[in-house]
């Protein structure tokens, strides 16, 4: 299986309380396994507040809905041994 690397990393975002914010990270190969999103070292699951999806097979997106002050912190995207933070 090819080593999946991060082609385009996360970018820092500034948003207002109550807004949605989207983070995206592009990887080198489709169908990447061992992918994880974290906020402040807490793994995120796909639910009504966090929408995790993959576009065109290589672009992994995380949308945080109606952010609050508690959502301030570092977002981490990991695929295998590679990480990107914002």
Automatic annotation (TrEMBL):
InterPro entries: Ig-like_dom, Ig-like_dom_sf, Ig-like_fold, Ig_I-set, Obscurin/Obscurin-like_Reg. One of its GO terms (cellular component) is cytoplasm. It is found in: Cytoplasm. Keywords: Cytoplasm, Disulfide bond, Phosphoprotein. Residues 2-86 form the Ig-like domain. Gene3D superfamilies: Immunoglobulins. It comes from the Eukaryota. This is OBSCN protein.
């Amino acid at each position: 299986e090819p080593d999946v690397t991060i082609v385009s990393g996360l970018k820092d975002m500034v948003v207002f309380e109550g807004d949605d914010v989207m983070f995206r990270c592009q990887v080198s190969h489709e169908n990447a396994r061992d992918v994880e999103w974290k906020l402040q070292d807490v793994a995120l699951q796909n639910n009504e507040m966090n929408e995790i999806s993959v576009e065109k097979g290589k672009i992994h997106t995380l949308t945080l809905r109606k952010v609050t002050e508690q959502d301030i912190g570092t977002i981490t995207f990991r695929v295998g041994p590679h990480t990107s933070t914002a």
